[in-house]
Amino acid sequence: MSCVKRQIADLVEYGLCAALVVSLPPEATAQQHAFQQDPVDQYMSRFLTVVILIGLGLVLWSLSRYRGRDIGAISWGFLIAGTSIFPMMLTGVGTILALERVRTVPLCGSCHLTMRSYVDDMMNPESNSLAAVHYTNRYIAENQCYECHTSYGMLGTLEAKKQGVIDVYKYYTHTFQLPLQLRHPYRDGDCLKCHAGATKWIAAHEESQQRIFAGELTCMQCHRETNPAHHQTLEAREFNP
Amino acid sequence: MSTPSVRTIELDPRIIRWTLISAQVLALTVYLLGAGFLLRTSGGTLFLFSVVAPAMVLLATLALAGVALYRYLRRSSLFAFALFEPGDIILQQGDQGDFAYFIQQGEVEVFRRDTEVETVIARLKKGQHFGETALISNAPHHATVRARTRVRVAMLGKRKFLHMLRFVHPAQGDLMSTMNQQATRQAAKRAKAAAQSRKD
């Protein structure tokens, strides 16, 4: 009995040590200041790391101790906790983190063959693209890709998820075509939701704002030439066979 | 005479064991997908974690719930069930009684063997029962029961049977009546056999 207790104590100790090591912020976020870190991401990541480690410990312990046999209440406790409760916590709470991370620039950039060039251009202080101007001047504080490319509402979200799954499929099967094309014409609302009403914008668009609001004139009709939304780098253009 | 080949109607323990192991492997995969998503968030890991992992959790939980339900039903069930093929001996004359048998399907014959002579005492079918006398009298079975057709029986253990007799009076009456009928039939057969031997 004391041997079992010692093994459990060891397991808990190793688990906690591993949780502390793994839950340290990754290198990319370590370069950020504390005030720039997303608290939801930070605490959720740590919580989920602990959930994963405890869950893994429970399942591995149960497998090695009982080898699939259900003998008594303790084995059922391990089974239910490790196989059902902790995985449910992981996927349930993880969904909140997924919804947070799905908006981040690193996630968009993770599809590096297609998106990396856009992200590189956006982060380039010497670029004059609209994305770079907004990003380098911190006109948008965070989730810069998401802020300019999400014009869908409640129903549109389902459509966006479906398109996202198609995008993932195309990316991993290399069936995408470069240069990437927007599925729909860019909506002026995504610019105007921030700019409309701003003093500087009103002053610059005094004559044209009624036509813009009426949909007779689009933002890109004027700004495409002077400040294109993105510059596509050579890397992305050359990938397309 | 065919050898007894009781086939109780229950899941193979190996199936239950592998179901539980599969559920645990699914859970392990979910943890690994979760770790992959946490450590390196990309379109692929996000897709696996948010679409594939919940499906795996659902499967693992359903497997676990299925086994738990099966165990609960087995534990709380009053009866055990068994199948016998034609010719199988269900209970043997002279053996101690462990169960009362209730025929759910098929037909059996009850016979005694006295000095190498087999005398068929009764034929029982769906809805009738046997084996209870040995439980009540705490004596060995006075006859052998053999399956005539493919037989499915519900088996009630001795402890549960005696417990039921104590509390369920209609069952007590029914069983006593069956026992009386059997005793009357046996007495009539013996009387007939005695009269026949006197005539000879």
Keywords for this structure?
heterodimer, A: 241 residues, mainly alpha, elongated, disordered C terminus, B: 200 residues, alpha+beta, Jelly Rolls, 2 domains, five-stranded antiparallel β-sheet, 5 helices, disordered N terminus
* Mean pLDDT value of chain A: 79
Radius of gyration of chain B: 27 Å
Rg over alpha carbons of chain A: 25 Å
The span between the termini of chain A is 65 Å
How many DSSP helices of chain A? 14
Distance between the termini of chain B: 31 Å
Structural class of chain B: alpha+beta
- Please state the oligomeric state of the protein chains shown: heterodimer
**How would you characterize the largest beta sheet of chain A?**
none
Order of helices and strands of chain B: EHHEEEEEEHEEHH
Task: Describe the overall structure.
The complex is a heterodimer of chains A (241) and B (200). By secondary structure, chain A is mainly alpha-helical. Chain A folds into two domains: 2-101, no CATH class; 105-239, no CATH class. Chain A contains 14 helices and no strands. Chain A has helices at residues 2-22, 27-30, 39-66, 72-101, 105-110, 112-123, 130-136, 144-148, 154-172, 189-195, 199-204, 209-213, 219-226, 234-239. The N and C termini of chain A lie far apart (65 Å). The relative contact order of chain A is 0.08. Chain B is of the alpha+beta class and 200 residues long. Chain B folds into two domains: 11-76; 80-199, Sandwich (Jelly Rolls), CATH 2.60.120.10. Chain B is built from five helices and nine strands; from the N terminus they run βααββββββαββαα. In chain B, the strands form two sheets. Chain B has a five-stranded antiparallel beta sheet with strand order 1-2-9-4-7. Chain B has a four-stranded antiparallel beta sheet with strand order 3-8-5-6, covered by helices on one side. In chain B, a hairpin with a 2-residue loop joins strand 5 and strand 6 (117-125). In chain B, helix 1 packs antiparallel against helix 2 (43-76). Chain B is elongated and about 100 Å long. The two termini of chain B are 31 Å apart.
